[in-house]
Amino acid sequence: MSSSRRSERSPLRSMAAEVTCKFRLIEGQFLSMLLRIRNPEKTLELGVFTGYSLLNTALALPTAGKLGNQIMGRLTIRFQITAIDKDREAHETGLPFIVKAGAEHKINYINSNAISVLEQMLTNGDELFDFAFVEADKPNYIHYHERLMKLVKIGGLIAYDYTLWYGSVAVDEEKVHEDLKEDRSVIMNLNTYLASDSRIEISQISIGDCVTLCRRLIYLNA
Ligand SMILES: C[S@@+](CC[C@H](N)C(=O)[O-])C[C@H]1O[C@@H](n2cnc3c(N)ncnc32)[C@H](O)[C@@H]1O
């Protein structure tokens, strides 16, 4: 892209950045409120980046029980959030803020590809989660969903972020910016998939760029 084209687009980009910040703030408040209402013990986050939603989650979780049980005289830490991301550098950038907020001990950060960690959890038969927040690579959302259907408790919640994809899913394709087109079609497929999945009930919350909440029902399709 030429420098003149770049500078032409910069006001739009800075406006988009400002809108995104506002989205994120409102979404963070929503996430905190949801967690305080649900009071989950064990949560999962796919896609941490610098940890904005992770910090919101950590601060919303109850303090009681953050340190686990006394087992044979030893204090074992029961992590309440398992947070997975392949970008360690981003996590390390945000980590000082998590430490400053006194929330680090609630987090079990795993630097890895999310699918392989979920597969490992299924193989190990790990304890199920009460809540999962998904904001990693959009093309894998459907693959995450299939695994989360087995890793989140019946009655537990899965939240998928960005399910309006900057509003593009509601706009004719020819009017959509080139940069958004690929993930728009991925998100449209996901939305159709979730809407027809009888193992869950869903609610698309028009907050930030939309969060789809899925409550796991009885596992119908064995
Ligand atoms: C939009 S950011 C997440 C934002 C974060 N939840 C927040 O509140 O700031 C997406 C993150 O997903 C991570 N990611 C993308 N694909 C992934 C994968 N296959 N496995 C693990 N992490 C992945 C990226 O490294 C990136 O940090």
TrEMBL record:
Keyword S-adenosyl-L-methionine included in the entry's annotation: yes
Gene3D superfamilies for this protein: Vaccinia Virus protein VP39
GO BP of this protein: methylation
Pfam families given in the database record: Methyltransf_3 (PF01596)
Keyword terms, alphabetized: Metal-binding, Methyltransferase, S-adenosyl-L-methionine, Transferase
Protein origin, superkingdom: Eukaryota
InterPro entries: Cation-dep_OMT, SAM-dependent_MTases_sf, SAM_O-MeTrfase
Single GO term (MF): O-methyltransferase activity
PROSITE patterns tied to this protein: SAM_OMT_I
UniProt similarity note: Belongs to the class I-like SAM-binding methyltransferase superfamily. Cation-dependent O-methyltransferase family.
Protein's UniProt name: Caffeoyl-CoA O-methyltransferase
